[in-house]
Automatic annotation (TrEMBL):
It comes from Paramecium pentaurelia. Residues 10-325 form the RNA 3'-terminal phosphate cyclase domain. It is found in: Nucleus, Nucleolus. One of its GO terms (cellular component) is nucleolus. This is RNA 3'-terminal phosphate cyclase-like protein. Pfam families: RTC (PF01137), RTC_insert (PF05189). Transmembrane segments: none annotated. InterPro entries: RNA3'-term_phos_cycl_insert, RNA3'_phos_cyclase_dom, RNA3'_term_phos_cyc, RNA3'_term_phos_cyc_type_2.
Amino acid sequence: MISFQQVINFREILLCSTLSERAVKIEFQQYPGPHLQTMLKLLQLIQTGCKIDVNTKGIIYIPGIITNQDGMLQTYNCGVERSISYYLEILLILSLFGKAPLNIELNGITNDQTDQSVDSIINAYIPLIKKFCPDWDVSLKVTRRGFLAGTGTIILHSKPIKQIQATTIIERGPICKIRGVCSGSKVAPNLLNRVVSQCRNVFNDYIPDVWIHTDLQKSQKGIEFQNGYAVSLVAESTNGLFISCDCEYSNDLNNPEKVGETAALRLLDEIKNCGCFDTTQQQFALLMMAISQRKVSQIKLGRISTHTIETLRIIRSIFGVTFNIEDSVFSCIGCGLMNLSRQTQ
């Protein structure tokens, strides 16, 4: 059993533990919050034989086999502590190594101020995974928007694969176009148009190909929606790489012009400093390299976050994979993780 103390991203520990089928013990001085229980229950839902012991000092996690309920459609409530994307980032990678396809409906928050939005998952995170799994069959659809009240709903269909391919991604290429989604609930349609106009005012000095569409959630009988709006932006390079950022209405960003301008400036900052993948995705790109086939993988990153540094330590402790870093290029030889439980087609 591998022990971790004073961790800042227990979510990645649980992910690596499940993939490697190695038990872990996580000790923490302060309980992370209700979203830890939500994550553990979700992991139990998609596995068979998973054992979890939670107390005030930490948790002991013994992973099982990822069966995905033999492909049956499941429904799970993610709560209102963290957004649906917080759980989707882990769930999408685990679905690659399941016994059967994953079919699940998640209810909760689709846009918040902490995690990336579901739109960024669709437009940037899934294309990242497909760089390592070109034949991956996946579908993610937003059926209902949800802000602070957690009334959003998404449906995920994902088929397992046999093994992740080694990949070399060093040249990002120039940015050729910017796309985005401005979503809202219980607000005037004019507010969303003002956000889009402000984004375009910033981007017009740099690139002409900018297209941001609006998605206003319609009222539904029996559902109490929370008012709010947010924008998700994605920049695409000539080499097919995607860089994303999000911005949501808050007390500090209390008018559409501020939201639009902040989102546009965040995306420009990511383009300048992120390398081939943005800050929210780089740790998962490194994990995909570590569990790929036993060949050399290389990616170029820019500004490194503290979560990425912690993830590198977790990968070394659980998989025994170390990275060579030279001129912002991360390279490693994958551990050759294979999906032995996948059903034959």
